[in-house]
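Fold this complex.
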Amino acid sequence: MANTSRLYLTCIRNTLEAAMCLQNFPCQEVERHNKPEVELKTSPELLLNPVLICRNEAEKCLIETSINSLRISLKVKQADELENILTKKFLRFLSMRAEAFQVLRRKPVQGYDISFLITNYHCEEMQKQKLIDFIVQFMEDIDKEISELKLSVNTRGRLVATEFLKQFI
Amino acid sequence: MAEFVEADNAEAIITRIEHKSRKIESLLKQHKPVEALKTALEGSPPNTQDERCKSANWIVVHRAIMAIKDVDSLFSYLDPEYYDILMKYLYRGLSTGDRPTCDQCLRIHEKLTERAGLGCILRSLADTSNTV
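Structure:
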């Protein structure tokens, strides 16, 4: 179990190291504009093949690269309804504060839970290795966070129910 | 006119793929998974845009990949010229989402990256004309 997780993260890390080769590229259509090509997808020659890495039916990671930007979309494992709701709320909380994260995208790509958009400007300001470490660390921590949240919800629910039902004994 | 040429080509390619698949079945029965994988990767990707040929070839390669048990010995026998094409098929396998396929592909991917380096991954990303 832990072994596939390690392999999955290694695969994503290697693919990101190879795919994060970004350079500045001003917009071809409109002068004086500079847009992340992976979002617009106007010119096919600027895009690389998108790569989908699945760990199993529930977890996957889509990596799309272009000449000046890279988009990583993650789908996190959600075992039951409670985890579904917790993941949605937690990731929505993070996405709304995307300004603080800089590399986070405000809305996840259709079909995924959370998306990152890394542009050449990010690569110039920040170290490529550290960006990749951040993304992989994020993926590891998300699972832990969601299980912690689920545990605390269950504990609180049990406490509240016990207290409430005491009055009927 | 171009469509007829494509259709001819497609039929010929599919027949070739069926031959390959029979050869691979026999090699697997003789417990030679590496040979089977080499046979599967030869002549790929098929020089056509036809989806059926690509799918047929993928099924054959998938069969060979799933039969491999020992990943380390794989690389001592496989020639470097097959690394790039194997990487493209690994990514196709990873996109299927089927658990045993993904497990196997992740295992081989790690070892292949150690062996072939990041250039191999980048070539599979950058090659938009010869996709599998």
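The mean pLDDT of chain B is 86.
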